[in-house]
Amino acid sequence: MLMYGSTMFLINTVEERVTFPALWGTVGALPGTRNLAGGMASSGAITDWLRSLFGDPSVPELLAEAETSGPGARGLLMLPYFDGERTPVADPAARGVLAGLTLAHTRGDLYRAALEATGFGVRHNVEAIRAAGGRIDRVVAVGGGAQGHLWTQIVSDITGLTQDVPTHTIGASLGSAFLAASAVGDASIARWNPPAVRVRPDPATTARYDELYARYRELYPATADIVHGLATG
Questions:
Q1: Any idea which of 2-6, 70-74, 173-177 has the lowest mean pLDDT?
Q2: 3-class DSSP state for residue 208?
């Protein structure tokens, strides 16, 4: 599960207890299951922050400009650690970094770079889940950010994963009701909240993002000493 919100959460269901230093282990929602979980300290919060700096244009307007920018945001690469980072970096002193900025870049490029940064962060967590022994057979995208096409498409293109977006993407209360119904009778999640959209990765774009992801992974260790000094200074 990917939860698109101000922060990003990932939950992978496993059949037995798994411990891994870069992730969290929790109990599962259903009998006989446990979870591997990860989370990013900021994701949608970055786009909200940028939007406020831009004078609060509409989200559809910014998404249209970000889509025009195209994969790679015309040479921009961002680290999304604007509030430190949770998994798998586990660094409260990490900070956001924007590399490649020129006078020719637009707000659409910056917005695109922020969306891509969260996608790279998701891929980093997915790699940690797999390294821990987690198996990813199906991805369900939830949260307010899953309602827009561009963000989920970018994440699928970066990770190579297909995502199912359910009919209701904001549903903590619906989930609680489903668990209660499961405890007293036969409840089907397919009936309660059926998939509405399937987001598939574009292989050509995924190949481009593979190159950028390698640079993304280099950017944090290359700048960590500098941003740590700024964070404490």
A1: 173-177
A2: helix
